[in-house]
Every structure is written in structure tokens, then in C-alpha cells.
Design a protein that fits this description.
- By secondary structure, the chain is of the alpha/beta class.
- It has a single domain, classed as Alpha-Beta Complex (Lambda Exonuclease, Chain A), CATH 3.90.320.
- Helix content is 42%, strand content 17%.
- The protein is built from nine helices and six strands, in the order E-H-H-H-H-H-E-E-E-H-E-H-E-H-H.
- The chain has helices spanning 19-27, 29-36, 46-61, 66-77, 85-104, 158-172, 194-197, 205-224, 245-248; strands at 15-17, 112-123, 126-137, 143-149, 180-185, 198-201.
- Residues 1-6 have low confidence and may be disordered.
């Protein structure tokens, strides 16, 4: 069940921008350089990553059958993921919610796309790519973009949805009259009621503007700066440095 790698839009592509890479560049250009130019990947907390990747893979391959089928899938693909006792306790909740979400939404949909990828060229050397967890039509015939979240708390994901909206409109060549967005939080909150952990979201035009500006600024930065010169990619220092993987791994000292 290995996932296929994203294809480049054209042979000259050097950089492929995603929501996460754009977010990283906005937070700290030096971190973006270390990750996407030097290909320097610091160690991360495997617990969180493994739990998130496991939940996403279960959601990608679950097509109904209830908890027995989901447990069978877990036995098949769960061996490659290492979960701490904390996340092992959260997994049954996440699996139960996945089944509830599928039964309430996806099982009733006439069209469902999982891991739907949108990929376009911004420049001869720069692509932009986004992969939507789920894109489905609801009972009213309207498209709904879904993002699965495995965090402990409800959080804002409007920048990410604005990024998807930009990509979808670019690929389709038209602006849809209506587009719905849902955040599915597998671990946040206490209730098993679908209405409690599935959050309908409203995208504002300001969110889209921010996303477009971030994309434009990233392209301009890449094309303007000397990509191979680390000194051109300035650090954004401050309290957030303490949470940076490069700072934790002592790859960056966090100083100006």
C-alpha cells in the first residue's frame, strides 16, 4: 500500500510548493532553505507522526464494514507504525469516529475522491501541489473538501482550506458558486456524535487573499534570492525557535 510519489508538472521543475512548505517559509526562510534546498530533515517526534499517518492511511483505505473491517485494516497496515501508550489509547476513539464519519457522510455520497491531488505549474521551475484528504459530493450535490486532523485540540485550518480553494479553482478554471469545507477531528472533544467532531467551516475572501499573497511571495523569493546561499535565507528568531526541529537538533542556533 505504498503511496506513489507526486509527479512533476514538467521536466524543469526544481521546487514543488505545498501548504506546509509555504507555511514554513512564512515562519522562517532559513528553515525552508534547510529542508527544501539542503534536504536536511531533522528528527521529529515519531509518536505524533506515526499516529497521524496511521489514521490517514486507515481513512484512505476504509470503504465500509464497521469497526471489524477497520480493525482488520489496522492489523494489515499498523505494523509499520510505532505508537506510544498515549496514542494507543486514542486510536480506538479515532477509529470509532472514522466509522461514524464514513457512515454519516461518505457512504451516502454519489462521488468520493480520496487523497485527491491537484498539481499545477507556476513557473518553469516551480510547481504547486496540494493533496486533499477527501473531496465528496453531499446529498445536496455540493462539493465538500475534508481535512482529517489528529491533534488533541480543535484549531483553525482556514489557511489550508484557502490553499485548496486556490488550487481547485486554478485547475478547474472556474470559481464554484458554493464550496463547503469540513475539518474532521479524530481526537478533539469528548463526544462521539458526528456533529461534535466534524466542524463545518466558512471560507472568507480574506483567507483566500492571504493564501494567494503567500504563494506570490514564495515564488518571488525563490526567483529573486540566490537559492544556494544560506546567508540569503534569513532566520526569524524569537520564542518559537524553542519549538523548531532544527533548533532542537542543534542544526540552527536560533540567533540572528
Amino acid at each position: 500500500m505504498a503511496k506513489s510519489k507526486s509527479k512533476k508538472t514538467h521536466e524543469t521543475t526544481i521546487f514543488t510548493l505545498s501548504h506546509s512548505s509555504l507555511e514554513l517559509m512564512a515562519k522562517c526562510p532559513r528553515s525552508w532553505f534547510l529542508k527544501y534546498v539542503e534536504k536536511n530533515y531533522p528528527p521529529k517526534e515519531s509518536d505524533i507522526l506515526d499516529f497521524g499517518n496511521l489514521c490517514h492511511e486507515l481513512a484512505e483505505h476504509y470503504y465500509g464494514g464497521g469497526l471489524p473491517e477497520l480493525r482488520r485494516l489496522y492489523k494489515e497496515i499498523g505494523k509499520k507504525y510505532i505508537l506510544s501508550p498515549e496514542y494507543k489509547e486514542k486510536l480506538p476513539i479515532a477509529m470509532k469516529r472514522l466509522v461514524r464519519f464514513f457512515d454519516a457522510k461518505l457512504a451516502k455520497s454519489p462521488q468520493v475522491y480520496r487523497e485527491k491531488e491537484f498539481h499545477i505549474a507556476l513557473d518553469p521551475y516551480i510547481d504547486i501541489m496540494g493533496k486533499v484528504d477527501v473531496l465528496y459530493k453531499d446529498e445536496g450535490g455540493e462539493w465538500v473538501v475534508v481535512d482529517y486532523k489528529t491533534s488533541k485540540k480543535f484549531g483553525s485550518i482556514m489557511e489550508q482550506f484557502a490553499f485548496y480553494y486556490y488550487l481547485i479553482t486554478k485547475v478547474s478554471g472556474k470559481i464554484p458558486k458554493r464550496f463547503k469545507f469540513e475539518g474532521v477531528y479524530f481526537c478533539a472533544g469528548d463526544s462521539d456524535c458526528v456533529e461534535d467532531f466534524v466542524k463545518p467551516l466558512v471560507l472568507e475572501i480574506s483567507d483566500v487573499d492571504i493564501s494567494i499573497n503567500r504563494i506570490d511571495n514564495a515564488v518571488e523569493t525563490i526567483l529573486t534570492l540566490d537559492v544556494d546561499d544560506i546567508n540569503k535565507w534569513k532566520k526569524k528568531t524569537g520564542p518559537l525557535c524553542n519549538y523548531c526541529d532544527y533548533f532542537k537538533a542543534k542544526i540552527c542556533d536560533g540567533k540572528k
